[in-house]
Amino acid sequence: MAERPYIVGNWKMNGTRAMLSEARAIDRSSQRLMKVEVALAPPFTLIHAVHREVEQIGVGAQDCHAGTEGANTGDISAAMVADAGAKFVILGHSERRQDHGETNALIRSKVESALEAGIRVILCCGESEETRDEGKAESFVSRQLKGSLPESLDNADEVLTIAYEPIWAIGTGRTPTVDDIGAMHRSIRALLVELYGEEMAAQVRILYGGSVNPDNAKELLAADEVGGALVGGASLTAESFLGIVLAAAEVQEQ
Ligand SMILES: O=C(CO)COP(=O)(O)O
After folding, report:
1. Which domains are seen in the chain, by residue range?
2. Cα 250 to ligand 1 centroid, rounded to whole Å
3. What is the distance between the alpha carbons of residues 174 and 195, in angstroms, rounded to a whole number?
4. Does the global pTM surpass 0.90?
5. pLDDT grade for 31, boundaries at 50, 70 and 90
6. What is the active site of this protein (predicted)?
7. Which of 193, 94, 108, 106 is nearest to 140 (CA)?
8. Does 185 participate in catalysis according to the annotation?
9. Is 233 in the pocket of ligand 1 (CB under 6 A)?
């Protein structure tokens, strides 16, 4: 792993204020964090509280609306999550695509809105099991990214992270092989070079997500072109999340 690995916990629809102690515990185990960049994306309701609770780690949101303000009952804009303390937002997660019918075009306008609001984007992509079985995973992911990334970016390296999350690996305990992850990440890197040029593309981190846990993290993080992990279930307790952070630090040292 070339640069500092980036380990991000996506709490999804989990967590009340009782979980702030987990965020605090993650933050306080900062000894190893010098080698690893660590962040949490709690639900909207906890962004501000987590932001106030932590000193070392980043805090972000799991989604935002494409607009800036207005008559959108129940929605939250990028500027609002930024105001609550979010420094990044996860966009295009497969659960948003599936459960809320989010299209690539909508996701692209959310990406633009987030960048406009001055927060970083973790853009998710990933194929279904059917698409992988058909041998079309790489072309599918490439189409997803082409459809949801802005055509040009001034500083992709500073504002953009990609997360490859095969849908069939999310919450299932199944993961692709290290070779398959490496092949997909190389394909994503090639697309970034095509879109933004070699220099900028080289600095965009590409995370792997899907059933990452403390036991498999070391192997998965050592795969080619993997710059970190987006973690769901195993980010819900400090103990398991820190196990992954530790694995990332060990891979970094190798
Ligand atoms: O969707 C994910 C993170 O965004 C992955 O979730 P799990 O780690 O629970 O498989």
Report:
1. 6-253 (3.20.20.70)
2. 22
3. 31
4. yes
5. low
6. 93 (electrophile), 165 (proton acceptor)
7. 94
8. no
9. yes
